[in-house]
TrEMBL record:
It is a multi-pass membrane protein. It comes from the Eukaryota. Keywords: Glycoprotein, Ion channel, Ion transport, Ligand-gated ion channel, Membrane, Receptor, Signal, Transmembrane, Transmembrane helix, Transport. GO terms for cellular component: membrane. Residues 1-23 form the signal peptide. This is Glutamate receptor. GO terms for molecular function: ligand-gated monoatomic ion channel activity. It comes from Nicotiana attenuata. It holds the Pfam family Lig_chan-Glu_bd. The keyword Cell inner membrane does not apply.
């Protein structure tokens, strides 16, 4: 029993000693670092990490006496070598791995880090896909390209460019960065039109080859996403190809600023080839810590201990070592062990050659990773803390511009403020919505030294003019045709294109290319498809804007409103119940009715004093007056005119009625005769339900519309090539090898009917569409040409071109609006109405003159001397009307009596 108690006590003491030994801090902690020593980023990062290790080991407040040992390995920009070096470093029992700077190497090493639970902390791998759930042991102490590409997209959107060309390295870093840019541009309604990859180890000839490819493309906004290059070979190629003009825009991701910052300040001649380039630089706030470190760096440069300038990634590397050191310190304070154990996944795979047995799992790797992801302190690059997906919450980017061999900061970008001329730190605490209204940048100098915003695309140049296809028609050449003698392209559509092109604010070199043989009208769907397939850059002509075509090309604003109509011989139509109104226009009816009223009133005035038929009670007089006037139309009036003036008015009035009634009868007869020859087709519904043949013009979309939309059997559809075939087929009819009707677009039908009066349009257009010019999808020229067409419509030029081609014999549309060619217009009878009115007015004036003379004579003879001289006006008017109301005979008797009495008094 005592023996057992002694053994138990011994074991307990051993356990306590072992536990106490494990809680002791290790003397040395190994941390690995994988990067390319001889690279733009690597040269600055190597020195920065060495300085960080020195500062940490010299600071007693951190690691508490444990020495941080940095085990460096050169990946030499090779995924293969980097992976081998990573395995060799991990064999030395490192608790964390810093780097690599290459995203491609980071992808490979992340799988190793996952298996051995060794946190991988990169200060330079910006590939957005590294932040996925696939790599739980990966942490990024630099800004992801997801943010950087959002900044590039905001710049593109700010300058209203819609298309860009992306040039990138063909590796994980380049492809995934451009994929992020694609998504960011899509949110801004822009896109990458062309993606041009470069080999990983590209040379000058590779760049020249890629840039030569881009010269034949339309966009001139280039986004370049490659690795830092101390030789700037990319811009050597740009200069050799003379792609530094004002038409070009060069937007560089942060590789560009990293390269510039790595150069010695003494060597600024390289900037002369970079005039107008715009780039991004990680924004690092100016702090005392940063200024002190920069001063320290410059001292090393003066002592030739450092052969590289301090880049943003050098600062990120320095802070990364501190992040790892602080996290290890927290791990040890929480009782974590720096211990390793064999991996069960490597059982059975141990080989003496590969030495896989030396690879061990870091027991506290998961705990250290959690501590790393919760880091929150201020370093040289500012506040260091991470998002839930283990990305550094960055402070944004500077937008830099090379002007006169100097680097200018023209603005800033952050994910909470967008583009701004103020640093992100200054606007971070302000609540603001990121909109185009509050986006701003300082004036940028573009290639060529201009401050005006480049257009961003070149639709064509003299070396490669715009290829414009046009339909070589066999019929209706008024719209578009090719003159075989002069080889000139002529027509209404061509003239309109030339006029619209004059209003486009830039030069558009082009050449016309015919589509079709000229023996038959070409298929317009095929013409539009050739634009979509890049055989033509555009198509000009009488091209209808229909749904299936808008899916593959962009059309301009319609310059002609059109639609499908039915044309047929006019026969066997029913007469309208109101056909008796059609001989006169509404104006003619109105003037004629007014004339009857005027004649009624004038005749009453002229006959009232001399004709008993126009006297009596007021009601009887009114009835007599109007019955007399309207009965003259039928010559049934019982009343006769007595006065000379009344008879004179009636003679002219009856002559006018004779002409009008005769014309009315002839017009009505003509209309009824024509209406006996109208079509049995009443509209598209009756045409569909019939079994008759229907004609259509070769090449028109009418065929597909009738077949697909209206479900008319193709066996009923007859193709016709010319207006002459139209007429012949309609005259033969459906039962004699012809057609009952033709369905075509309105402009063609109007021209067809110009000299053919025995055919007509049945009903109204049953589709609504227009004609426009076709361009490739998202072509900016389509928008500018649409604006030009609207201007032509506003200034009347569009109508002038239309009249030039279609109105020599009168505009078809005007003739079509005259729906009743046999109607009588007021303009045909204005002379007769004028004569009748003049005679009527003259008779009325003579009558008034006579009656006023009689009244004045009457008043002189019968004036009351005792009555006051200032008789009121109303009394005088009443007296005058009382005088008029007296019969003429009574007035004459009064005058005769006064004359006899005067003679008696005189004798």
């Amino acid at each position: 029993m005592k023996f057992l108690e002694a053994v138990s006590l011994f074991v307990f003491i051993l356990v306590l000693q072992n536990r106490h030994g494990n809680c002791q801090r290790p003397n040395v902690v190994n941390v690995g670092a994988i990067f390319s020593f001889d690279s733009v980023m690597g040269r600055a990062a190597k020195t920065a990490m060495e300085l960080a290790v020195s500062d940490i080991n010299g600071d007693p407040s951190i690691l508490n006496g444990t020495k941080l040992n940095l085990v460096m390995a050169d990946s030499d920009c090779s995924v293969f070598k980097g992976s081998i070096e990573a395995l060799q470093v991990i064999e030395k029992q490192v608790v964390a791995l810093i780097g690599p700077q290459s995203s491609a190497i980071a992808h490979m090493i992340s799988f190793i880090a996952n298996g051995l639970q060794v946190p991988l902390i990169s200060y330079a791998a910006t590939d957005p896909t590294l932040s996925s759930l696939q790599f739980p042991f990966f942490l990024r102490t630099t800004q992801s390209d997801w943010y950087q590409m959002a900044a590039v997209a905001d710049i593109v959107s700010f300058y209203e460019w819609k298309e860009v060309i992306a040039i990138f390295l063909d590796d994980d870093y380049g492809r995934n960065g451009i994929a992020a840019l694609t998504d960011a541009l899509a949110k801004k309604m822009s896109k990458i039109s062309y993606k041009l990859p470069l080999p990983i180890n590209y040379n000058l000839s590779d760049v020249i080859y890629v840039l030569n490819q881009s010269k034949s493309l339309g966009p001139r906004v280039f986004v370049v996403h490659i690795n830092p290059d101390s030789q700037l070979r990319f811009f050597d190629a740009v200069e050799k190809l003379k792609m530094t003009g004002s038409d070009y825009v060069w937007l560089m991701t942060d590789w560009f600023s990293t390269t510039l910052d790595s150069f010695s300040p003494k060597n600024e001649s390289y900037l002369s080839t970079l005039e107008g380039v715009v780039g991004l630089r990680p924004y690092i706030p100016q702090t005392i810590q940063k200024r002190t470190f920069l001063s320290r760096w410059r001292k090393l440069q003066r002592n030739e201990l450092v052969n590289s300038g301090l880049t943003a990634y050098g600062l990120y590397a320095y802070d990364t070592v501190w992040v790892v050191a602080r996290s290890i310190d927290n791990l040890l304070q929480q009782g974590g062990n720096v211990s390793f154990s064999l991996s069960s996944m490597l059982n059975g795979t141990t080989s003496d050659k590969l030495q896989l047995g030396k690879l061990k799992v870091f027991d506290s790797g998961e705990l250290l990773m959690n501590i790393l992801s919760q880091t929150n302190f201020t370093g040289l690059t500012g506040k260091i803390h991470f998002t839930p997906d283990r990305n550094l919450i960055g402070s944004g980017y500077e937008v830099i511009n090379i002007v006169q061999q100097e680097i200018h900061t023209v603005g800033y970008w952050s994910n909470f403020s967008g583009l701004s001329i103020s640093p992100p730190k200054a606007v971070k605490n302000k609540e603001m919505a990121v909109t185009m209204i509050n986006q701003n940048l300082k004036i940028v100098t573009w290639p060529g030294g201009k401050s005006e915003k480049p257009r961003g695309w070149v639709i064509a140049n003299d070396e490669r003019p715009l290829r414009i296809g046009f339909p070589r028609r066999a019929s209706f050449p008024e719209f578009v045709t090719l003159n075989n003698d002069s080889h000139q392209v002529l027509g209404y559509c061509i003239d309109l294109f030339y006029e619209a092109r004059k209003l486009v604010p830039y030069d558009v070199p082009f050449r016309f290319q015919p589509f079709g043989t000229g023996l038959a009208n070409p298929n317009y769907d095929e013409l539009v498809t050739m634009v979509a397939d890049d055989v033509f850059d555009a198509a000009v002509g009488d091209i209808a804007i229909v749904t299936n075509r808008t899916r593959i090309v962009d059309f301009t604003q319609p310059y002609v409103s059109t639609g499908l109509v039915i044309v047929a011989p006019i026969d066997n139509a029913e007469s309208s119940a109101w056909v008796f109104l059609k001989p006169f226009t509404p104006e003619m009816w109105g003037v004629t009715a007014l004339s009857f009223l005027i004649i009624a009133v004038v005749i009453w005035i002229l006959e009232h004093r001399v004709n008993d038929d126009f006297r009596g009670p007021p009601k009887r007089q009114i009835i007599t007056m109007f019955l007399f006037s309207f009965s003259t139309l039928f010559k049934t009036n019982q009343e006769n005119t007595v006065s000379t003036l009344g008879r004179m008015v009636m003679v002219v009035w009856l002559f006018l009625l004779l002409v009008i009634t005769s014309s009315y009868t002839a017009s009505l007869t003509s209309i009824l005769t024509v209406q006996q020859l109208s079509s049995p087709i009443t509209g598209i519904e009756s045409l569909i339900t019939s079994s008759s043949f229907i004609g259509y013009q070769v090449g028109s979309f009418a065929y597909s519309y009738l077949r697909d939309n209206l479900n008319i059997s193709p066996s009923r559809l007859i193709s016709l090539r010319s207006p002459e075939e139209f007429e012949s087929a309609l005259r033969r009819g459906s039962g004699n090898g012809g057609v009952m009707a033709i369905v075509d677009e309105l402009p063609y039908v109007e021209l067809f009917l110009q000299n053919r009066t025995d055919f007509g349009i049945i009903g109204r257009p049953f589709t609504k569409s227009g004609w426009g010019f076709a361009f490739k999808k998202d072509s900016p020229l389509a928008t500018d040409m649409s604006t030009a067409i609207l201007k032509l419509a506003e200034n009347g030029k569009l109508q002038e071109i239309h009249e030039k081609w279609f109105c020599q014999l009168g505009c078809p549309a005007d003739r079509r609006r005259d729906s009743e060619p046999n109607q009588l217009h007021l303009s045909s009878f204005w002379a007769l109405y004028l004569l009748s009115g003049a005679v009527t007015l003259l008779a009325l004036l003579v009558y008034l003159f006579r009656i006023i003379r009689q009244y004045m004579r009457y008043k002189r003879k019968h004036a009351d001397p005792s009555s006051p001289s200032n008789t009121r006006c109303s009394q005088a008017i009443y007296s005058f009307f009382d005088f008029i109301d007296e019969k003429e005979e009574a007035i004459k008797r009064i005058f005769a009596h006064d004359t006899c009495q005067a003679q008696t008094n005189g004798s």
